[in-house]
Specification:
The protein has eleven helices and ten strands. The chain has about 290 residues and is of the alpha/beta class. The strands form two sheets. It has an eight-stranded mixed beta sheet, with helices on both faces. Strands 3-4 form a two-stranded parallel sheet.
Length: about 290
């Protein structure tokens, strides 16, 4: 049985949900899912109160069995809801969002992995909200090149795909996924469209060492990845992969500096950073530098 580590003081964050009612009401009315709620993200109160959310399309049941994630898992989820892209666009317009993140559960049961549903969502959002910036956080699509091409041709502003952890931990943390395949997804997006911004994210505290993390940064930059998020892994329950280490804030600052020195355009690195946390800041930082 794994020892449960005690949370340090810098991870005692109060989750305030009192300002979330309006956004949650729209989500319920539109019959949509958010990864914020599905994953019980500790930042959801902060994001919801600002009118920010990461929408989860293609249902709320995943075909992969990653040991760090609390999203429900099943080999045979329900068929995609064809009306979801339109309800999604309507909700985003009603909320008046300036930047939106769209992600999905992994759907290995679908021939295209759900790529067409991503593209339909972008098209609907562009029709309803032409000024909005759109970020897609995609699965690896089992490296189906046509599926990746479908997503790139939808012309979002950012395509993200998280490697999540270092290669040596994939077998226990991300069964069904492959480190090199995830890196290759990001490289292939750039091959299809060199101007497309790409993004990835890592969780720390799973048992990785510093050298492995830095090698992962280098692999991402070699693949042309522009943006990077780095945060502390927090186990959703005792049944999930255990936290091996609580990384100190100074180490997150060290990793941010190291990543920036490799040429990432923007890096968010802190214990409570998540892939979609402060997502609009990445484009803002690039525009400010320009």
């Amino acid at each position: 049985m794994s020892t449960v580590l005690k949370k340090p003081t810098w991870l005692h964050k109060k989750i305030e949900l009192s300002g979330c009612q309006r956004l949650e009401a729209f989500i319920r009315e539109a019959r949509l899912n958010t990864v914020c709620q599905q994953a019980h993200c500790p930042n959801r109160g902060e994001c919801f109160s600002k009118g920010e959310a990461t929408f989860l399309i293609l249902g709320n049941t995943c075909t992969r069995k990653c040991s760090f994630c609390r999203v429900e898992k099943d080999r045979f989820p329900q068929a995609p809801d064809r009306e979801e892209p339109y309800r999604l666009a309507w909700t985003i317009r009603q909320l008046g969002l300036a930047h939106v993140v769209i992600t999905s559960v992994t759907r290995d049961d679908l021939a295209d992995g759900g790529a067409g549903h991503f593209a339909a969502s972008v098209s609907s959002i562009r029709s309803y909200c032409p000024e909005i910036s759109i970020e897609l956080l995609i699965p690896d699509f089992l490296f189906n090149t046509q599926a990746i091409k479908t997503v790139v041709e939808a012309r979002p502003d950012i395509i993200a795909h998280n490697i999540e952890t270092v290669p040596g931990l994939y077998a226990s943390v991300r069964p069904g996924a492959e480190y090199n395949r995830s890196v290759e997804v990001l490289r292939y997006v750039k091959e299809l469209d060199a101007q497309m911004y790409t993004k990835s994210g890592l969780m720390l505290g799973l048992g990785e060492c510093k050298e492995e993390v830095l090698r992962a940064f280098a692999d991402l930059r070699k693949a042309g990845c522009d943006f990077l998020s780095i945060g502390q892994y927090l186990a959703p329950s005792l049944a999930h992969y255990p936290v091996r280490e609580y990384v100190v804030p100074d180490m997150f600052e060290y990793y941010r500096t190291e990543a920036e020195s490799l040429g990432f355009l923007h890096v968010e690195s802190a214990p409570y950073v998540r892939s979609s946390y402060r997502a609009a800041e990445y484009l803002r930082k690039v525009e400010a530098k320009a």
